[in-house]
Amino acid sequence: MRVKKTSKRLLLMLCIIVCVCLFLTRSVNEIQSEGTSAQLATQIPQGMRAVTVSFSSKTLPDKALLYPGCFVDVITMRKLNRNRIAEVLPDFIVDLLVKCKLIRINRGAISTTMLRRIQVLTIKHSLSGTHVTVLVDPRQAEALLLAAQKSIISLSVCKPLDKKTDFKIQQSKPPDKIDLATQIPNGKRAVTIPVSSRDMPDGELLYPGCIVDVLVAFELSGNTALFTTMLRRIQVLAIKRDPSGALVTLLVDSKQAEALSLAAQQGRLSLSVRNPSDKKE
């Protein structure tokens, strides 16, 4: 009996010690987190706001280009419903009505650059997506949060620190990411697009620095499709291969970035490689 009582007391004491250790560890972590958060908040310039937006992997640039302190353009893609009923109903109800042939609707989309040269403060990855915090003024914050609710948002990366008005974020930046970002020419943007393995050129032909044409296929009504060359003589900046295909980063201007973001959402992209010395359209 005495042995059982002693065992119970030892077990109880052990549980108490474990609970105290967990509590102390949690408190230390919270203090460290609060200290880090306070330090990060001091990096927000006067008059600016830090806004966090969630992105899927399809709408983000290559990870080798995106880092705290880099500069990005924010591109929005919004669907256009040319039907008054569709404008006030949820998308799933509209789709049901269309399938039942109760209404007809011609859908289009528009893509535009809503914010230019916005600086990234933090990047955090999770199972639900990637959360990017950017520095904007109060009006830009309102516009960005509204766009995040109403449209699809993507990012294109700008050349870092090519304006006197740019300011530095005091965070460690991997040298390889900075080196890649500095290869973006002035006035150009780095846009990453997904290309499936069936739409990829031969691996020996596709390499960073090569010149490609970008083709897009759109599915139309019925079994018809439209296939066209949308961009010509585009330089490849980076390639990240995987079993399903590759993420290819291209150097384009801001208008081409908008068109690429829209085509990636609405159609299927593929690439064709051309001779670097070929100047013909």
Secondary structural class: alpha+beta
What's the total number of strands?
Answer: 10
Trace the largest sheet across and list its strands.
Answer: 1-4-3-2-5
Spatial gap, N to C terminus? 94 Å
Rg result: 25 Å
What key attributes describe this structure?
single chain; 281 residues; alpha+beta; 2 domains; five-stranded antiparallel sheet; 6 helices; 10 strands; globular
Question: In a nutshell, what does this entry contain?
Answer:
This protein is α+β, with helices and mostly antiparallel strands and 281 residues long.
Can you offer a commentary on this structure?
- This protein is of the alpha+beta class and 281 residues long.
- The chain has helices spanning 2-41, 84-88, 91-99, 138-150, 175-181, 254-266, and strands at 49-55, 71-81, 107-126, 129-136, 152-157, 189-196, 211-219, 225-242, 245-252, 268-274.
- It has a five-stranded antiparallel beta sheet with strand order 1-4-3-2-5. A five-stranded antiparallel beta sheet has the order 6-9-8-7-10, covered by helices on one side.
Topology:
Elements (H helix, E strand, L loop, with lengths): L1 H40 L7 E7 L15 E11 L2 H5 L2 H9 L7 E20 L2 E8 L1 H13 L1 E6 L17 H7 L7 E8 L14 E9 L5 E18 L2 E8 L1 H13 L1 E7 L7
Antiparallel strand pairs: 1-4, 2-3, 2-5, 3-4, 6-9, 7-8, 7-10, 8-9
